[in-house]
Structures are given as structure tokens and as C-alpha cells.
Fold this sequence. Notes:
Elements: H1 9-19, E1 21-27, E2 30-36, H2 44-51, H3 53-65, E3 69-73, E4 76-80, E5 91-95, E6 98-104, H4 106-114, E7 134-135, E8 138-139, H5 148-164, H6 166-177, H7 186-189, H8 192-207, H9 212-224, H10 238-244, E9 245-250, E10 256-264, E11 267-270, E12 280-282, E13 291-299, E14 304-309, H11 327-331, E15 338-343, E16 354-364, E17 378-381, E18 393-396, E19 399-406, E20 417-421, H12 423-429
Antiparallel strand pairs: 1-2, 3-4, 5-6, 7-8, 9-10, 9-12, 10-11, 11-14, 12-13, 13-14, 15-16, 15-18, 16-17, 17-20, 18-19, 19-20
Helix pairs in contact: 5-6, 5-8, 5-9, 8-9
Amino acid sequence: MAPPYGYPEEIAQFIAHIACFQTEKEVGGSLRTTHVLMPGAALSPILANIVSDKLDAELARFCRQLGCTYTRYADDITISSNRRTFPAPIGRFATSDSHDEFIISDTFQQMIEDNGFRINHAKTRLLGLAFQQEVTGLVVNEKVNVKRKFVRDVRAMLHDWEFNGYAAASERHFSEKRPDRGRLPEQEATNFEWVVRGKIEFIRQVKGSTDQIFRSLAARFNALCSGQQLSIPLVEDSDVLNAAVWYLENDTDGGSVGTCFAIADNLFVTCAHCLGPNLRIFPRQSPAFAMEADEVARDAHNDLALIRLRAPLFAFNPAATLQMASTAEASALVIRSAVQTAGYPSNLDSTSLTIRNTEVTGFSRQTFDGTPATSDNVIALLSGTYEGMSGGPVLFSGRVVGVIVRGPNDDDRTIPFLAVRSEFVDALLATL
Length: 432
């Protein structure tokens, strides 16, 4: 509850109770009540951040003064830099002609030990661009990526399954490749299909749903699996999105921004809260050229609006339009469905469209004008909506299934990622 965390009392008590789980332990032939910290629980990142808060502040400040970036995930610390030589106040190679042993400086080591931690020197290493730079199992040389061996292993597992059958592939994997199940429950650790699925889902998480490696592996898995198939979204052509999704401004409170997208010639969808005085939108053919626009329909309850250009110019007609999902296509959207969002975050370049891959986390009913909520109108997303993207599309299998209405901003990171279902756009269109 104390700063800097400021957890509400209910949350603080909940964390404390889980961190000190009451159980019984046999001591001297009798059972005694004791409290333990469960290893590997979902609470671990929260506790790690709490106990490492002072360490993080000190090391981040120290590294920043040396032109380096400090990051930590659980107990793994990474220090990165674009400098040609690594700063000696952090550490150096044991010898100038060998890169086998890296020695942490006494100052840096003392800062860590003063905070109650010890360095595992066996895992300390310095990797330049010529090496595979690996952080928490991911390759980070040019972009975050999975290791090639991981992908090769998944391909081998699928190949074995395809040519030798499930039983033989499963037996070979668990007897030769994974004789020890680790901490996994027996049911999960002995289900070969779940293991393959989990590995492919991990590749999706790192590389994204549009990545060709993920899509190829997922298609092979879907042809073999007996349970739920992996969702492989149709990739909306980025050229289509760039042509159809436009930037929007008005003069509310000294200037407000948003997003809109074309669904027909001179007809755009946006949010009701994106409307305001001196409404103008910017054609993708000339992103610096402002064109005045007018509201033609509004649904304040669902925070939706339709707008048109006041004086459309043929040269600036949308080069592409987006298609609204049919009732059947929209009803196929379920929790964990992979979707795409598009828009113009207010903290980024207004001439460059941002496209994000995310997934559905739930559905709910909400109101945006203070009137009672009457139907399940909102799609909750894992990520991918930010201030300025309001009015942008949410696409599933290449069709618009929602309109972005809410997302976090620089002042409030707790705002949820929300979109309104496309069926309410259809209802608004019916009023024209």
C-alpha cells in the first residue's frame, strides 16, 4: 500500500496472502502450520518488481550515465549499448585477446550485493553484433525473434507426426527429447498435441500472426490436430489499410486527434467523441492536406459516428475501402481470436499508419453516454489500441468486426483496450 506502488488495501492483502500461503509441514512426526512462498506462481513478477525496485533505480541511473540501457526480467539483467566499446565501469573481458570470460566491475558488483543479491558469474557474458545476442531465450540482434533451432525442432516434430503418425511421434518425443516433464502436470506433459500447439503459439507471440513461419507451421498443425485449430487470420494488405484509414483532427480543447476509415466513396466511420469544431481529415494521397468533414450520423450510446467530406475531390477519393463483416463473420469472433488494429496514435507520426496484431480477451456491455447499457456491444482486446487510434478499425479475417473506442495514453496506462462491435455500425448505416 505504501508508495511507489499504492496498491489498494484489498489488493495488498491479496498479494500478502498468496505470498505467505498457509500449509502444513511435518516436523518431528507431527504436523505444524507454516507459511510458504509458492515458486513459479503468477505472483512472482509482482514480487520480483517490489524487491528489485531500489536495485532497478540505482542500476538504471548508473547505466544511463554511461550511455547504456538497463532492463530486467525477473532475475535476468541485460545492459545494452550502441557504443563501440563497452564501458569499463560496468565490466571488461578478463584478457584483451580472449572474449571467453567477462568480469563485472567491483563497483557494479557492490551495487548489486548492497541490495541483497548475488551475481551468477557462470551466466555473465558480453555479446557483440557478430554473436547471436540472446535475452531470456529470445534473439534480439536486429529484432526480437525465436532461435532458429526452436523453429527447426517444431518442424521436425510436425514432420514426424505427418509421416509416422501421432503415436510414434509422441513416443519418440517423450522418450528421446523430453524424458523429464519438469514442473508440468502429467496430463499436460504427456499430450504431444498440446506440446506442439504451445510451441507454435509461442512463435506467434514473438513473431506475430502475420509472420510466414508461424502461418506455415500453424497450417500444418491444423491439418493434423484433433482438437481446436490454431487461428490463422487472413492478413489484410497493408496497402489497403494505408489507403482506407485516414488521420482526423478537430479543435476541441485546443486540438484533438483521432482516426477514421472509409467504407464507401466519401463515407467514413469514426468515434462520436472524435467529432468537434472544425472537423477535418487528411487523405492518404497527401497526408498534409486537410479536408473539411461533416457528421452525417451519430450513435453516442456506442460512441460511433459517420462522416463525409464537405467538398470531395476526385483526386483525393479513398484508393480503397474496408468491408464490414457479415453477421456470420462477426459471430465467428471468439475469445483469443487473432485480430488487427489500425490507427494513428497521438504520440507517433500522424503521417504513418500504425498496424498492430492482437487478440480478443472478452466481450461486455458498456455505455459511452451515461445511459444504461442494453446489449453486449464491446470487444475487449489484449493490446493494440492507444490514444489517437479511436475510430480505427478492428479486423478479423480481413473484415471489420469492430471500431476502436478506448485505449491507454501517456497520462493513464490503466485504460482498457476496447472496441465497439461492427453490428452497431451496420445499425447506424441503416439510418441513412
